[in-house]
Design a protein that fits this description.
Elements (H helix, E strand, L loop, with lengths): L10 H23 L15 H15 L1 H4 L9 H28 L8 H13 L1 H18 L6 H7 L1 H17 L5 H13 L2 E2 L4 E2 L4 E2 L6 E2 L4 E2 L4 E2 L4 E3 L20 E2 L4 E2 L4 E3 L4 E2 L4 E2 L4 E2 L8 E2 L20
Helix pairs in contact: 2-4, 2-9, 4-5, 6-8, 8-9
């Protein structure tokens, strides 16, 4: 016999009512998916997020196989690298084709054939020796700039700033070749892991070091020279965004600052504006707010008022 609830209904009645609400929710959700600018496509063609993340791991292992291959034996001969690169090539070409196909679905441009994606993937892989050389410079910059670093291995294996820069340099190479979506997916994955947000469109020179790293933001149109060092919490950002007559944001303009060679920016500093240039060798102190250009070699400091009070005598009002 079905157990009756206090209002006379049975548990079976309650379950049936709950399932009816689920069916109604599914119908409303389906209707919502077909409305507005974010309609869900019937045959979606997007890059596979998990596959893009796996590609980052595969690329790390061909760049630094001895560090990122775990404890398995590593073959460093050209034949082994050719096998790994061949595997990456097919996966990457397929994801690039997916990304470009999606972009074609949302524009009036003609969609390129798979051969275009394969050509871009091959050109990208051809740049890996140059990218590795830049990453080696970044490792040296981290080692020379951080007395806590005991070895190059420690930087490669444990420094979040280096991981974020590694992913950025790979993503940037795809960005400059016109690959949509995937570069942002890559750097946002690194952002989620490290707390460091580097837009793949930023231009960053050699020997770049982010110390500690959490909270660093580098915008799309930022230009950063060689041997620049940033500490945690630094923002290289934009001022208020200009809009056109219709109220839409004006895109494709330089919105973020330029940091010339040998600049150091300490923790918590905020540097804003596309016309802002931090001159070569300048130092921006912690917690500074900078919206104007700074001459080469200058130092910008933020000096808050700090009051040191002597301890109260025992028994005095407010004493503990």
């Amino acid at each position: 016999m079905a157990h009756e609830l206090e209002d006379g209904r049975t548990a079976s009645d309650e379950l049936g009512s709950a399932m009816e609400r689920v069916v109604q929710a599914a119908e409303r959700l389906h209707a919502a998916q077909q409305e507005g600018d974010l309609r869900e496509p019937l045959a979606p063609r997007y890059p596979d997020y998990e596959r893009v993340v796996r590609l980052i791991g595969k690329l790390r292992r061909v760049l630094f196989p001895g560090h990122y291959s775990g404890r398995q034996a590593v073959r460093l001969d050209p034949t082994a690298l050719n096998e790994r690169l061949g595997d990456i090539f097919w996966d990457l070409a397929d994801e690039i084709h997916s990304a470009r196909a999606h972009a074609c679905d949302t524009s009036t441009s003609l969609c390129p054939e798979l051969s275009w994606a394969q050509s871009v993937a091959a050109a990208f892989l051809a740049e890996l020796p140059r990218i590795r050389a830049m990453l080696c410079d970044d490792v040296h910059a981290a080692y020379d700039g951080d007395p806590a670093a005991k070895s190059y291995d420690e930087i490669l294996l444990a420094y979040p700033g280096f991981f974020a820069v590694l992913v950025y340099r790979l993503a940037h190479e795809l960005w400059v070749r016109g690959v949509p979506l995937i570069p942002r997916m890559m750097t946002e994955y690194a952002h989620s892991v490290t707390g460091i947000d580097i837009h793949p469109g930023a231009q960053i020179g050699r020997s770049f070091f982010i110390d500690h790293g959490t909270g660093v933001v580098i915008g799309e149109t930022a230009v950063i020279g060689d041997r620049v060092k940033l500490y945690q919490g630094v923002t290289i950002g934009a001022l208020s965004f200009p809009k056109d007559e219709s109220g839409a944001l004006i895109r494709n303009q330089k919105r973020h600052p330029t940091l010339e060679d040998d600049v150091v920016v300490y923790s918590g500093a905020t540097i804003l504006g596309g016309a802002t240039v931090i001159g070569r060798g300048a130092v921006i102190g912690g917690n500074c707010w900078v919206t104007e250009s700074v001459p080469a070699g200058a130092m910008v400091l933020h000096r808050p008022t700090v009051e040191l009070r002597p301890p109260r005598e025992p028994g005095a009002p407010g004493a503990r």
